[in-house]
Amino acid sequence: MPQPVPADLIRARFSDALSAMYGCEVPLYAQLLELVHDVNGRAMAADPALGAMVEAAGGLAAFNREPHGAIRVGKPDELAALRRVFAVMGMYPVGYYDLSVAGVPVHSTAFRPVDRASLGVNPLRIFCSLLRLELIEDEDLRATAADLLASREILTPRAHELVARAEAEGGLVEEEVDTFVAEVLETFRWREKARVTAATYRRLLGAHRLVADIVAFQGPHINHLTPRTLDIDAAQAEMVARAIKAKAVIEGPPRRHVDILLRQTSFQALEEEITFLGADGGPEEKGSHMARFGEIEQRGAALTPKGRALYDALLDEARGLEGSSGGDYAARLAALFERFPDDLDTLRREGLAYFDYALSAQGHDALASGHRVPADLEACIAAGLVSATPMVYEDFLPVSAAGIFQSNLGLEERGAYAGHSSQAAFEEALGARVADPFALYAALEAQARDAVLARLHGARA
Ligand code: OOG
Ligand code: NI
Asked: Would you tell me the crossing angle of helices 174-188 and 7-25 to the nearest 10 degrees?
């Protein structure tokens, strides 16, 4: 019996294939990749410690190959089907994001690997949003949208088959992997033929741009892929220098010594030619659609609930009544974040960020030579025997996501929909619970701490 291919390797292959496909579809993405590659190379050269960290984690080429992407689906069984597809690649739903509070009629999760080894192989994340039809006010239009979605199938028959096989057999064998990757790519491919007439498209657009993007097409085309940078301020400046229309502000925290969470910038969605069905069986009509864009991100430390509460409070205050559109937003944000500790020791001691613990080279030496080591973890860190490195934030930020949605679609910031946040309804559609991101980081931190303590105690016994 051939052995199943590890899910992590299927994901890595899918990630490369997705990136290649999107690069062909959206040449600006290929430009972004090149830009980020340049910026990252310069950042590593300027900061040898950073360079060493990236090299240790697999090198720049691997780092540059770690994007996140986003898709939007229209109905519960599409979400459930994708959950099963992603599981074959070792990606599980983490977090619940309610975007309706920011005037975007969707709620979302992120499919991503969860354990340390898998994240190390390839941390591909897909932000996946589900349309909330109930937030469309016009009853007629809601019914039209529901009908259109009811008659749509987003997976190919072969993809369905392979998912079922993987579930039954505990994975896919080598001969099946290329087919699986190719079939799943079909779901995320751009199609310039809309499934609706121009008139219906305009009605959907009138409800919300996202409604048109989700309902008018055959499938959930990938709407952006985001390479990761080591210096987002440089990337932003470079976008401007290369005449790429970057959004005005970088979402997330300001520039700091110790990066936290996630900083993101993007360029506006492209206006792309599409074809509508002819009205009353008449000839097809040409038109255009805006959905696909480019984004760059920089990832920093994952925050604990305490750190996150402080982040949210400061961000709220900075955004105030004007949101992020006020001219002095960047200055306001930087000034407010003076209150957020900006050195590793304080972040760790005050329990603001999650940390990874490992025996340092000095720690290994001390154990090997049988020296007595302090029992207490803090004392070992102080003595340089144990290293504490902040854990990378692997998730997303709802306020940033809303800002990305809005600026890319040329939308105004708008008030909340009158719906309730509905994690239970989302999970019912998904057919599973979403994991709590804080619990995942906390478990990884506890694992690392226990492993280090076991090494140290073992040595003393
Ligand atoms: C998703 C926007 C959210 C991010 O990086 O926060 C996102 C979308 O536009 O579908 O990707
Ligand atoms: Ni994104």
From this structure: 40
